[in-house]
Amino acid sequence: MNERLTKIIQGRTIELVAKEEGMVVFVFGDHSRMRVKVAGGPTVNRLGEGIIESAGQDGAELILIGEDGRTATLRLDEPGSSITVTDKDDKVEYAG
């Protein structure tokens, strides 16, 4: 489990998930955002619009777990420097 990231995003409600080339952006109910740079290949998102329970990292994969047990698995482009969480004012809360 990525405890630092979990502490920041736990309890936030996903309002929107936007996918672009090499990037997945989660927009939360408090207007904060999590940007994840992803590598090529499949991304599995069964999380939908829900509340984040925890975040884990397994090598080059970021695993997000919702309160109902649904998950999203994202293949990170560069583990350790692919995730950025910003608050509603675009101030960085997490980078890693």
Summarize the structure.
By secondary structure, the chain is mostly beta strands. Helices cover 7% and strands 48% of the residues. The radius of gyration is 12 Å and the shape is globular.
Q: How is the biggest beta sheet arranged? A: 5 strands, antiparallel
Number of helices: 1
User: N-to-C terminal Cα separation, in Å?
Assistant: 14 Å
What share of the residues does DSSP label as strand, in percent?
A: over 45%
Helix content class: under 10%
**Whole-number tally of structural domains:** 1
According to DSSP, the number of beta strands is 9
Unreliable spans are none
Helix/strand layout:
Layout: H1 3-9, E1 14-20, E2 23-28, E3 33-37, E4 44-45, E5 52-58, E6 61-66, E7 71-75, E8 83-86, E9 92-95
Antiparallel strand pairs: 1-2, 2-3, 3-8, 4-7, 5-6, 6-7, 8-9
Describe the fold and architecture:
The chain has 96 residues and is mainly beta. The chain has one domain. Helix content is 7%, strand content 48%. The protein contains 1 helix and 9 strands. It has one helix at 3-9; strands at residues 14-20, 23-28, 33-37, 44-45, 52-58, 61-66, 71-75, 83-86, 92-95. The strands form 2 sheets. A 5-stranded antiparallel sheet has the order 1-2-3-8-9, covered by helices on one side. β2 and β3 form a beta hairpin. It is globular.
